[in-house]
Amino acid sequence: MSSAWPIAKEAITKICHQSNFPTTTFTMADLGCSSGPNALLIASNLVQQILAKLLARLTPKLEDMILILVHVSLMGCRVLSIPGFSPPILSISFIPLLPFIGSQIPEGIENKNKGKIFMSSTSPKSVIDAYYNQFQKDFSMFLKCRAEELVIGGLMILTIVGRTSEEPWSKECTSCWDFLSSALNTMVAEGLLEEEKVDSFNIPNYMASLDEIEVEVWKEGSFSINYFEVSRIDWNFFDDAETKHDFAKCIRFVIETLLIPHFGESIIEELFRRYKNIIIQKRSKEKLELINLTISLIKIK
């Protein structure tokens, strides 16, 4: 969120300097947000940035109305309509996706990816292709749906875990799933899990490159890319002794709802205990990073 904020701030500044910028309705959406302080922080920062640019152009009465709506919105309410306000004529979406989880497991990979839960350098080409094809379908649909929510000139800022390598099985985007796969396989070796259960489980996730994202944006046609940035986030960043947060918990939050229906709830605690230990061992020997892609898009049609 912090690395993406300068891009959001710059995008808002450009919008507010337009001569035809609206002084009535400004709609924002934070899709994929959390339910805690982080979500409120992002919304609050966006609102404050907009108000800082607009206060000189607002009447006191309208300023008071905006501040009231901001307060109501941050309290968890959704304002549906306000007398005298025109329909939204500009929208901005700040959408954190960690990672890009697809709509379904790619078709045609059942039992072709034995011993793994994600693609790797040893996965058959058919598995790699199936993952990419599923990403193309899902990301194109994602863009299409967001385009229906935005007006011409509206902005969408995406921050997505991706990769810089041309290889979709690169360590920079598969390590987190490789380690989880290793944890599952140790439980198979000890008779705690059936091998077939692991062989038949695959994660519907794809960590795209900027080139792949650019291709899909161009093909879908509703947006143009205004700006992009690549940043690297050390896995150590997720560790916080005071709150007892760690990278393993972050991944558990993302994937647990997919694991439980397939493996059952009884294995989850033991699985992530092993997963955390594997991460600690790997991290002592090598630097582990996530690649974060932040893309600013403008709706053009």
From TrEMBL:
Q: Which UniProt keywords apply?
A: Magnesium, Metal-binding, Methyltransferase, Transferase
Q: Which Pfam families does the entry link to?
A: Methyltransf_7
InterPro entries documented for this protein: MeTrfase_7, MeTrfase_capping, SAM-dependent_MTases_sf
Identify the domain of life: Eukaryota
- This protein's name: Uncharacterized protein
- Which organism's genome codes for this protein? Citrullus colocynthis
> Which taxonomic lineage does the organism of this UniProt entry have?
Eukaryota, Viridiplantae, Streptophyta, Embryophyta, Tracheophyta
